[in-house]
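Everyone, carefully examine this protein record:
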Amino acid sequence: MKKAVSFLALIIVAVLFFDSCTNNNKQDLLKSSVCDTTNIKYATTVAPLMTAYCTNCHGGGSPSAGINLEGYSNVKQYVNNESLWGSMNHSNGFKPMPQGAPKLDPCTLNKLLAWIQAGALNN
């Protein structure tokens, strides 16, 4: 009986040891977790973000709550009064956006913040 328990324990340890060995290298592991916030531009990053998450409600002839997020000058207005970041980041004192949806993923928010911190340029 003692030999059977020892053998079983040895099998379990061997399975756990060999199961933890994979062929992942550091580069592959970092690919999925890296968020590139360099060279963020309005035209290539922010405008598509607004189209994907905002302008369906906050655009057109009758934008929700009178907030129009179509075009740079409209977006810049809400950057300047800090409501764009406050709402998108679900910060206290701001209405969380997108409404009825979860907070955007951290990488998307980091890109938006990087653009804002770089001066929210029309580039």
User: Anything to note?
Assistant: The CA atoms of residues 68 and 74 lie 6 Å apart. The radius of gyration is 24 Å. Residues 44-117 form one domain. The helical segments are 2-19, 26-31, 42-53, 72-80, 83-88, 106-117.
